[in-house]
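[Amino acid chain]
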Amino acid sequence: MLYLNEVFSHVAPKRRTVQDMAGELELTPQDVSVFRTVFGLREIAVVDEGGALELLDAVLARLVATTSIDLKQIKYIFHCHAAPCVCPSGAELLQPLKKKYGLEHATSIGLAQDQCATPLTALSLAEILLADEADDAKVLILTGEVGFTPKLRLISNTTIIGDASAACIVGKQGTRNAVLTVAQRKFEMADVQQAVGSIPVPATSYGDDLLQVVRDALDQASMRLDQLALIVIHNVNTISWKFFARNFPCPLELIYLDNIAKAGHCFTSDPFINYCDAVAAGRLKAGDHFMMVSVGTSSSFAAVILQH
């Protein structure tokens, strides 16, 4: 069994409103209205200066200053990202950070196969690699990248991307956040979005596939949805999660939606950011079962059930 031993997050402190970003993203006034009123996006977290290196540096600094875990126990570092390229070709991203924080002994791996769902599907790889390691061995899952072009910043009729990073230490031993099951599906023919008239809505296939992977996770854990204290999500938009709540069905209050309006969809970091904020807000108590869910634009769906 795996445990999320410690989770840290860093959201870029600067905020820009959807209206402020309309020019560079070529959004019409109607687009702005849809993003605000239908998708629930208001402010987007953006870096003032720097890029992915600075975002990862910020969350690693928080980890090193706070963790009680011996960093020598970290055997692998996964940098999970959604975009295929997160820094200029030939540039070093992880190596200077590994040197700065005493992690040069760890093997680093870049993962992007499931786009925004990659940190959750990476738990399966972590379990495989840790199987042959000592009981106290750890994997550090890092997320963090910047929407440095309009094409990365905007997913048309779906979401606007924010900048953030997160760090999650995963081990075979722990006292909380036990990983009970990891469910994943990849639907090659799924559509992320379709338009009906002038108002974009979640495509039927996207919604059905999301429902399916959540059912898979619950079935594997032999649990019911009403046994969950919280669903920790990716911040794509509110309409997708309202669709889910209506069709599963489940109470909308079960889904942690707080950060959609505050930061936007921060690539792979959303579930960890939302987890940190939910814990800080008292939404999870010891022993609670909860779920992390994320979806990649390649139609990769992942759902993880944990016990806090």
Remarks:
- Confidence is low (pLDDT under 50) at residues 190-204.
- The radius of gyration is 18 Å.
- The chain has two domains: 2-171, 178-307.
